[in-house]
Design goal:
single chain; 235 residues; mainly alpha; 10 helices; 75% helix; 0% strand; globular; transmembrane helix; DUF4386 family protein
């Protein structure tokens, strides 16, 4: 039997709209006491490893969790503005992929700083900072994707003026490896919260209650997934 289901589902998208921006803002605020450029970020990791690990982990988690929200938003925009939805949605998703790629480099560099010292990690990063890779050619999507998607959301009347402006401020967020927090970083992540968190809460409140079968499957799946996550970390 066919349904009107749209991947990844209304509740998943709603949770993504709430948690994704909040985690990005949390990570941004946690690393705000330290200077923006990578030598200071690496030194901070040597001195405050727990705080910096939490900051970068929260930011990465928020970045990854955003994709269902973006897919759902682009789908909604596409009902009236399909071309804008396609360009904006794809650009933002490519930008999220690139930030995830950067996060892998961040993790390696911060690990070096913690184990071998900030000086050693700084020399490795500085020598390889300009190395070309696939995402070198897609860096523009990190910024411009948010502008296009915000404009599309406004034109399609999916977000109001405040929400669209809030989403557009994400384009101010600095890009690249081991970037700390600037004032515009806080504006961008807080703006995304303004744009998506209220919409996510509304979607959760308006969603129909899950049936008993769904609740039972969820009750079984959660501990199984937790166990799989634990086993994965052992490898």
């Amino acid at each position: 039997m066919e349904t009107d289901y749209v991947f990844p589902g209304r509740r998943v998208a709603a949770v993504s709209m709430v948690l994704g921006p909040l985690l990005l803002l949390t990570g941004t605020l946690l690393r705000s006491p330290f200077d923006f450029f990578f030598p200071s970020q690496l030194k901070a990791m040597s001195v405050h490893p727990t705080l910096m690990t939490a900051a970068y982990t929260c930011f990465l988690a928020g970045n990854v969790l955003l994709w269902p929200a973006i897919v759902a938003l682009a789908t909604k925009i596409g009902r009236t503005k399909p071309a804008l939805a396609a360009w904006g949605g794809l650009f933002v998703l490519f930008g999220l992929f690139e930030r995830t790629f950067h996060a892998g480099i961040d993790q390696a560099a911060l690990g070096l700083a913690e184990r071998r010292g900030a000086g050693f990690a700084e020399s490795v990063v500085s020598e390889s900072y300009q190395d070309l890779h696939l995402f070198s050619f897609l860096s523009f999507t990190i910024m411009f994707g948010w502008y296009v998607l915000a404009f599309a959301a406004y034109r399609a009347k999916v977000l109001g003026v405040a929400g669209s402006i809030g989403m557009a401020t994400m384009g101010l967020l600095p890009l690249g490896v081991l970037k700390g927090t600037e004032f515009v970083s806080i504006i961008g992540t807080a703006g995304l919260c303004v744009a998506l968190v209220p919409a996510g809460i509304r979607a959760l409140l308006e969603s129909p209650k899950p049936n008993r079968r769904t609740m039972m499957l969820t009750a079984i799946a959660v501990p199984v997934l937790g166990a799989l996550a634990f086993v994965s970390a052992l490898g």
